[in-house]
Amino acid sequence: MFFRWENDVMQQYVITCCSTADMPYEYFQERCIPFVCFHFNIDGKQYPDDLGKSMPFVEFYSKISAGSEPTTSQVNVQEFIEFFEPILRAGKDILHVSLSSGLSGAWSSANIAKNELLEKYPDRRIEIEDSLGASSGYGLLIDMLADMRDKGASYEDVYQWAENNKLLIHHWFFSTDLTSYIKGGRISKAAGLFGSVLGICPLLNMDDTGHLIPKEKIRSKKKVIHEIVEKMKVHAQNNVNYSGKCFISHSACIDDARTVADLVESTFPNLSGKVIINSVGTVIGSHTGPGTVALFFIGDKRVGSEKKA
Asked: Are the C-beta atoms of residues 309 and 214 closer than 8 Å to each other?
């Protein structure tokens, strides 16, 4: 894929990420952010997690609803080397922001690739930043770093800001379909079937180690939509006076995502713009299945000590 950094003689570093940041393909092109693809396997065939290009999201989630059980694989060391090397060869430094190490080994693979490449390119710099995030929350971090870069921030300033502030990005998720959670072992079959009968919608968040943690079991979609926005009221910077960006991602449940977005926009009148709604990509979506809505915003520092449901 072609990105404008290849002809940019002014910018001395490139911000890169993984496809699991779950932003649109066109977004990465416009913001000059190269991404490396994870992989998923469905119905006996492997595809790149290329943001809906090889398999549209509608088709992907329809297959899961029809009974297909996708599996995923992370980016390996050789793929990272092949991804990074053209950037280094062009004389650019790299700040790679990885999917949470609490969810994947990609951060470790990227570091192995980094060490190998620095032997060949000793005058270049590569930092592998663990986002401790996923989906469009990880994408929100990338977006903020790209904003800094575009305003002229140095490599070191962008890197240190990411290191110091990444835990300010909140990730709250709920699901109205427990099927994939049961299949993946995150919910026992008995609890999942019981929850489905009662209309239970689990509410989860990302903790300070980048793991997805169950918080509450809420009965009914209407109540969980209200509760996820209540969490934003509690945790967002300046509470209801929050003036930052807000992203949502969803897995084949756009109406639910829009309902959450409408409630956020009416609750937080000082948002920097409309809530941005993206699709949960094929790798993250292989584990959530359809029916998941995730809400991302800037707030107080995430901690892991809150009592779990």
From this structure: yes
Greatest distance between any 2 Cα atoms in the chain: 60
Q: With a threshold of 0.70, does the pTM exceed it?
A: yes
Closest CA to 175 of 98, 249, 245, 72: 249
pLDDT digit string, tens, across residues 24-56: 999 999 999 999 999 999 999 999 999 999 999
Contact of 92 with 85, CB cutoff 8 Å: no
Length of the chain in residues, anyone? 309
The phi-psi region of residue 32 (left if phi > 0; otherwise alpha if psi is between -120 and 50; otherwise beta) is left
Residue-wise pLDDT tens digits, 51-60: 999 999 999 9
DSSP-derived secondary structure for the chain: ---GGGG-SS--EEEEEEGGG---HHHHHHTT--EE--EEEETTEEEE--TTSSS-HHHHHHHHHTT---EEE---HHHHHHHHHHHHHTT-EEEEEESPTTT-SHHHHHHHHHHHHHHH-TTS-EEEEE----HHHHHHHHHHHHHHHHTT--HHHHHHHHHHHGGGEEEEEEES--HHHHHTTSS-HHHHHHHHHHTEEEEEEE-TTS-EEEEEEEESHHHHHHHHHHHHHHHBTTGGG--S-EEEEESS-HHHHHHHHHHHHHH-TT-SSSPEEEE--HHHHHHH-SSEEEEEEEBSPP-S-SPP-
The rounded Cα 104 to chain-centroid distance in angstroms is: 12
What are the tens digits of pLDDT across the range 237-289? 999 999 999 999 999 999 999 999 999 999 999 999 999 999 999 999 999 99
C-alpha dihedral sign at 139, 35, 125, 152: negative
